[in-house]
Design a protein that fits this description.
194 residues, mainly alpha, 6 helices, transmembrane, transmembrane helix, transmembrane transporter activity, transport, cell membrane
């Protein structure tokens, strides 16, 4: 069972199914964005090296493109890590609590995350408005394209935290296995817990 699978005994709950679909959509979108950005960065760096080798000077767009795309690569990685539970967390308290209390601890921390990331996303739109008047000289794009990665990341993290609350409330899985990295050593052992 992967980190996004839901216990079949409760799968009929429509809210749980919607949360699962939202999570899968967010994860797939972040993976596609990350892949496309890595390919674009590779092509840009390769083109820059090739242009310098062939003509003794590079192209200005090759220098601007990484400034525009690197925030999106970081954003996709952050969202993917949140979706699969791979962020660094302090788990000793959660593992030391009984299952019901651990579930409520998760709900509380995820509610704080919804509030924090929602606040950052909302107020980040001001940053986008401010930076929309600044342009990259060669590409002609506004710097808001790069800064919007921060705002979209915060919004997706808020939605991920919200779906984590739904998972914690409705899923029959162990609280410590709600969002667990597929690379975690204990993923199969903890999923069997009631």
């Amino acid at each position: 069972m992967s980190s996004l699978d839901i216990d079949t005994s409760r799968e009929a709950a429509p809210v749980l199914v919607v949360a699962q679909r939202i999570d899968r959509g967010i994860l797939l979108t972040a993976q596609i964005v990350g892949l496309l950005v890595m390919v674009a960065l590779f092509v840009a760096v390769f083109a820059g090296v090739l242009l310098r080798y062939l003509s003794d000077h590079g192209a200005a767009w090759v220098n601007e493109l990484p400034y525009l795309l690197f925030p999106w690569l970081c954003a996709s990685g952050i969202v993917i890590a949140a979706q699969v539970g791979a962020h660094i967390v302090v788990e000793f308290l959660r593992h030391g609590l009984p299952s019901a209390k651990a579930r409520w601890l998760i709900i509380g921390t995820e509610a704080l995350a919804v509030g924090l990331f929602g606040y950052l996303a909302w107020h980040g739109t001001t940053l986008i408005r401010i930076t929309s008047s600044e342009h990259y000289p060669t590409l002609g794009l506004t710097t808001a394209w790069a800064y919007s990665a921060l705002v979209i990341t915060c919004a997706l993290l808020a939605v991920t935290a919200l779906t984590s609350i739904v998972l914690a409330l409705l899923s029959q899985r162990a609280p410590t296995a709600l969002r667990q990295s597929p690379w975690s050593e204990s993923s199969t052992a903890e999923e069997a817990l009631p």
